[in-house]
Amino acid sequence: MRIYGLTGGIASGKSTVSTLLRELGAHVLDADAIAREVVEPGTPGLAEVAARFPGVLGPDGRLDRAKLGARVFGDPSERAALNALLHPRIREAFLEKTQALAAQGMERIIYDAPLLIENGLHVGLEGVVLVWVPRALQKERLKARDHLEDGAAEARLAAQLPLDDKRPHATWIVDNSGNREATRAQVKEVWSALLARG
């Protein structure tokens, strides 16, 4: 099985590219979806997060992501503490899923992970697709999407490696600063290149 990485940054359009790849027939494993699974009610992951970050559970016993985000986005040490709790669980779940897919005969999968490069997960993959936009556009999209003030948008951008710093690690770059059709054309080229690798 060949595993390729898909990454980008907040509000860069990675979800759009992931959707386009799925439409072309790619099997995509989403790190964010796995991250949600490992903190479902009743999981050890949720118990650990609730113990380390009191007050982040909603009345229904589920993780209140907005409260947790407010705690960790502005504080690198708190973010590091959360990552230390969750990343090993996410990695373990990812390995279980890839092993199951390999057993089913899946030839290639794409691992969609926003912090792929920050966490060193790109090392050893067959290649990395980076969704890129200019930083100014990324910030404007983030502010519009999440209804954020300038400072809050900056804090979220600062929590990730800048897209320009991710470029040297990318095998393919999808420039998502244009319209959806321009992005779709680039994604088709990338998918063709992946298929050509066997």
UniProtKB/TrEMBL annotation:
Task: Write one Pfam family the protein is assigned to.
Answer: CoaE
What is the enzyme's main class?
transferase
Which InterPro entries is this protein grouped with? Depp_CoAkinase, P-loop_NTPase
Which reactions are catalysed by this chain?
A: 3'-dephospho-CoA + ATP = ADP + CoA + H(+)
**Pathway assignment:** Cofactor biosynthesis; coenzyme A biosynthesis; CoA from (R)-pantothenate: step 5/5
**Annotated binding of ATP, by residue:** 11-16
Query: A GO molecular-function term, please?
Result: dephospho-CoA kinase activity
Q: Which UniProt keywords apply?
A: ATP-binding, Coenzyme A biosynthesis, Cytoplasm, Kinase, Nucleotide-binding, Transferase
Q: Supply the EC number(s).
A: 2.7.1.24
CDD domains in UniProt: DPCK (cd02022)
Annotated localization? Cytoplasm
Please state which protein family the record places this protein in: Belongs to the CoaE family.
Spell out the HAMAP family in the cross-references.
Dephospho_CoA_kinase (MF_00376)
Query: What is its biological role?
Result: Catalyzes the phosphorylation of the 3'-hydroxyl group of dephosphocoenzyme A to form coenzyme A.
> What is this protein identified as?
Dephospho-CoA kinase
Phylogenetic placement of the source organism: Bacteria, Pseudomonadati, Myxococcota, Myxococcia, Myxococcales
